[in-house]
């Protein structure tokens, strides 16, 4: 016992000038490990996606975008571009709109 | 159904998508935009051109860019350089692939330049070179124009199709001739002659024609005339061995031959034609195309290589330096933007006659269209008359109204000859019903695809759609403007002159007619007249339909219609019906009846005789031997503003009969060139000139002339035929043949 105490005393006196200052780091490391495993769990978490609703939304989105982009118009014939009426030349579409408005 | 996915996989997918997206934006988006721009062009949308230009500078493939340039910017025909070509004989749009408007020179220049330097050597290539070179030629840069040709020729020589090379060489030759670059032209000519396929007659003749044009430029008119004459004789004598795939080429040579013959009559035949294209307020229109076309081709659309084609400079001015004498029609090539809200006051059939004695000035002024006030926008007219009103035109001395039966495919227009001095008037529906729009000449007519029974009803169809318009004239009888023009943008549409005439109801006979039961309808109209000979509608309809019973000839139809025209004329005192009667008696040479009805015509007409009517009456007087009176009416016809509608050939006959020299009469003919009579056009001055030449070698020419003209005056067709067969006086024979063709 005395021997043990003596050794301890000696060790203490020898280590007297050494201080352990990395407690923070150790704690940090432990925390990191915990976070990593959290991230890992999240990263590998399985989610389940309902195919029908999601794909419906996706396809509708694309369709709307395309429709807006293209205005949904079919090409018209060259000759239908103009119309002659009462000696004047009009743009066919405008002329028809005007007649409809008057009615 | 559900799928299971780890978050990391989903994230990866998102990440990949986000990386691909910008790539899509850079490479795929332009593709989509190109597609959209093309769609817009095909839909005729006005903003499509701007869209396409935006896309052309983005990341699309070279092939796509050149493809778009080829399709939308290269113009194979001179006419397609402009959106609209307007001439006195009509107008034509040249929409390319549905395009609303062409690209302006400023817009397309860099692309054409790049296409010529690096583009594919497709069939459009020679045209691209020609287009760009034309631009520089017009903008006072003949050097650049030549360089462009040289560049194009070099590329085609190295890697091109020999056919395209020849085509471009020909274009280049024509351009050199126009630029008076005789050295360049001669070199090209030598090259072309050396390599041109001798069996390709079209090409051979085009080369010969270019050479002739070079000779003309150099003032060698006689040489040019003899070359052209020789080619024409060769073709005629070859009995079909020389065949041209382009039949217009032969006609072009004939027309050139005519003009050269004209040119030989004067010492310095090549004259300058200048003019200005502007709006009525004086604002110039730069970059407008101007074509000077032989009237022989007035009914043809503009060729791919017009001889006289230029563009206006920044002051709206244009110049044609060396123009051969002849009759020309001026055509203006304009863009949508230039013409929107305007019209060009060309008179129908207006010509520019160049006699080689002086330079000519010909201005083209765009006038704002006349806006109509009432009735418009589908007004239904149920009264027996209606009021019309339009915006007054400054300096207008009188107005003329025009009514049209609007039918898709075929519309019929009739101009009323009442001169209206205010900007308002009232029209009686009876007067519209009496207008003759269409009639059946014979049964065959009714079997044609385009035959439309409703058209026979004219303005008396309560189910029909009609329109009206107005034209303003100055005190000289010159057209100032009209309501008919280009109303392309919303602000220029104004009121649409659509009206419905619902003052009368359809009769049984009308219903039968509309059902296509023509013979039953005619019988019903006749029965109506039997019951009540003051049934004007039925009488009118009989005149329109009596051709069903004719033997197919014009005379027979007119003869059958005559009693009904007489009944109509007597009851309505409408001069238009009298005109039909006069036409018949003139043809029959029944002078008692003719003179009686002419008296009625002058009593009932509201206006003096127009050019056509005066010349027709003058011929009737001539045939009756009333020389002095006839001359007065011919002079009146010539003095009328629309003298070009008149038939003046009998005036020349009259003066010859009165022993005026052939030279004098030829001068008269030159002063009043004949219009396109039916489908052909006769150059009386050249015929008379040839007769004058012929007479120098024949002793009894004057007696022979007097003899055959007296046969003509007497209307002795068999004797004329015998004379034509037996005579060897070629020029006189042509004269008599033409007269016969036009009058009997």
UniProtKB/TrEMBL annotation, chain A:
Q: Where are the transmembrane segments?
A: 47-70
Keywords assigned: Membrane, Transmembrane, Transmembrane helix
Q: Does the keyword field hold Membrane? A: yes
The name this protein carries in UniProt is Uncharacterized protein
Provide the species name: Oceanobacillus sojae
Q: From which lineage does this chain's organism come?
A: Bacteria, Bacillati, Bacillota, Bacilli, Bacillales
From TrEMBL, chain B:
Keyword set, alphabetical order: Membrane, Transmembrane, Transmembrane helix
One GO molecular-function annotation for this sequence? carbohydrate binding
Known Gene3D superfamilies for this protein? Carboxypeptidase-like, regulatory domain, Immunoglobulins
Q: Pfam families in the record, alphabetically?
A: CarboxypepD_reg (PF13620)
List the transmembrane segments. Answer: 12-30
User: What SUPFAM superfamilies has UniProt attached to this entry?
Assistant: Starch-binding domain-like
Q: Which InterPro entries would you find in this protein's record?
A: Carb-bd-like_fold (IPR013784), Ig-like_fold (IPR013783)
| Name of the featured protein | Carboxypeptidase regulatory-like domain-containing protein
Q: Which organism is it from?
A: Oceanobacillus sojae
């Amino acid at each position: 016992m005395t021997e043990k105490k003596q050794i301890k005393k000696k060790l203490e006196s020898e280590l007297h000038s050494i201080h352990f200052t990395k407690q923070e780091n150790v704690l940090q490391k432990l925390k990191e490990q915990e976070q990593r495993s959290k991230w890992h769990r999240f990263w590998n978490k399985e989610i389940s996606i309902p195919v029908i609703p999601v794909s419906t939304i996706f396809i509708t989105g694309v369709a709307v975008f395309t429709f807006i982009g293209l205005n949904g118009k079919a090409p018209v014939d060259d000759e239908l571009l103009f119309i002659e009426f009462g000696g004047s030349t009009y743009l066919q579409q405008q002329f028809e709109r005007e007649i409809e408005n008057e009615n | 159904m559900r799928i299971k996915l780890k978050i990391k996989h989903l994230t990866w997918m998102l990440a990949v998508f986000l990386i691909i997206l910008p790539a899509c934006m850079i490479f795929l988006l332009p593709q989509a935009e190109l597609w959209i721009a093309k769609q817009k062009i095909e839909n005729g949308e006005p903003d499509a051109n701007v869209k396409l230009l935006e896309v052309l500078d983005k990341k699309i493939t070279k092939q796509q860019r050149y493809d778009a340039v080829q399709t939308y910017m290269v113009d194979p025909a001179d006419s397609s350089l402009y959106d609209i070509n307007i001439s006195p004989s009509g107008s034509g749009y040249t929409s390319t692939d549905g395009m609303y408007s062409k690209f302006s020179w400023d817009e397309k220049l860099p692309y054409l330049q790049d296409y010529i330097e690096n583009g594919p050597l497709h069939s459009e290539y020679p045209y691209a070179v020609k287009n760009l070179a034309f631009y520089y030629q017009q903008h006072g840069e003949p050097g650049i124009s030549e360089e462009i040709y040289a560049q194009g020729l070099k590329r085609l020589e190295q890697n091109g199709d020999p056919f395209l090379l020849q085509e471009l060489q020909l274009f280049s030759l024509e351009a050199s001739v126009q630029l008076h670059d005789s050295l360049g032209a001669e070199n090209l000519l030598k090259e072309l002659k050396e390599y041109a396929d001798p069996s390709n007659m079209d090409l051979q003749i085009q080369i010969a024609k270019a050479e002739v044009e070079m000779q003309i430029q150099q003032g060698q008119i006689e040489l040019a005339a003899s070359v052209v004459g020789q080619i024409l004789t060769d073709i005629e004598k070859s009995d079909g061995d020389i065949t041209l795939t382009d039949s217009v080429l032969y006609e072009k040579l004939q027309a050139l031959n005519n003009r050269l013959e004209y040119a030989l009559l004067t010492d310095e035949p090549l004259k300058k034609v200048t003019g200005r294209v502007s709006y009525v307020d004086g604002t110039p229109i730069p970059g407008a195309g101007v074509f000077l076309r032989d009237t022989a081709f007035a009914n043809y659309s503009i060729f791919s290589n017009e001889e006289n084609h230029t563009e206006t400079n920044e002051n709206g001015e244009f110049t044609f330096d060396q123009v051969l004498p002849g009759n020309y029609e001026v055509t203006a090539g304009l863009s949508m933007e230039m013409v929107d809200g305007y019209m060009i006051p060309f008179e129908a059939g207006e010509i520019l006659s160049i006699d080689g004695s002086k330079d000519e000035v010909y201005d083209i002024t765009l006038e704002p269209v006349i806006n109509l006030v009432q009735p418009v926008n589908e007004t239904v007219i149920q009264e027996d008359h209606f009021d019309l009103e339009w915006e007054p035109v400054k300096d207008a001395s009188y107005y003329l109204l025009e009514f049209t039966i609007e039918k898709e495919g075929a519309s019929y227009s009739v101009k009323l000859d009442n001169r209206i001095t205010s900007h308002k008037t009232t029209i009686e529906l009876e007067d519209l019903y009496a207008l003759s729009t269409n009639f059946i000449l014979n049964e065959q007519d009714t079997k044609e695809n385009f035959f439309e029974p409703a058209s026979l009803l004219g303005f008396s169809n309560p189910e029909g759609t009609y329109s009206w318009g107005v034209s303003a004239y100055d005190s000289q009888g010159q057209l100032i403007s009209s309501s008919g023009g280009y109303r392309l943008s919303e602000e220029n549409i104004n009121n649409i002159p659509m009206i419905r005439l619902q003052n009368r109801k359809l009769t049984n006979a009308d219903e039968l007619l509309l059902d296509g039961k023509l013979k039953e309808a005619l019988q019903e109209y006749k029965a109506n007249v039997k019951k009540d000979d003051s049934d004007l509608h039925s009488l009118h309809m009989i005149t329109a339909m009596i051709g069903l019973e004719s033997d197919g000839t014009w005379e027979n139809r007119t003869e059958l219609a005559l009693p009904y025209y007489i009944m109509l004329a007597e009851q309505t005192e409408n001069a238009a019906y009298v005109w039909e009667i006069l036409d018949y008696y003139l043809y029959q040479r029944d002078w008692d009846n003719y003179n009686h009805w002419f008296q009625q015509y002058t009593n009932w007409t509201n206006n003096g005789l127009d050019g056509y009517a005066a010349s027709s009456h003058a011929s009737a007087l001539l045939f009756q031997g009333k020389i002095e009176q006839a001359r007065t009416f011919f002079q009146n016809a010539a003095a009328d503003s629309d003298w070009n509608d008149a038939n003046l050939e009998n005036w020349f006959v009259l003066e010859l009969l009165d022993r005026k020299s052939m030279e004098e009469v030829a001068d008269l003919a030159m002063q009043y060139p004949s219009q396109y009579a039916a489908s052909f056009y006769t150059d009386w001055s050249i015929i008379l000139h040839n007769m004058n030449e012929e007479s120098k070698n024949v002793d009894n020419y004057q007696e022979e002339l007097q003899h055959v003209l007296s046969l003509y005056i007497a209307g002795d067709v068999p004797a004329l035929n015998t004379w034509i067969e037996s005579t060897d006086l070629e020029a006189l024979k042509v004269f008599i043949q033409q007269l016969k063709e036009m009058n009997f």
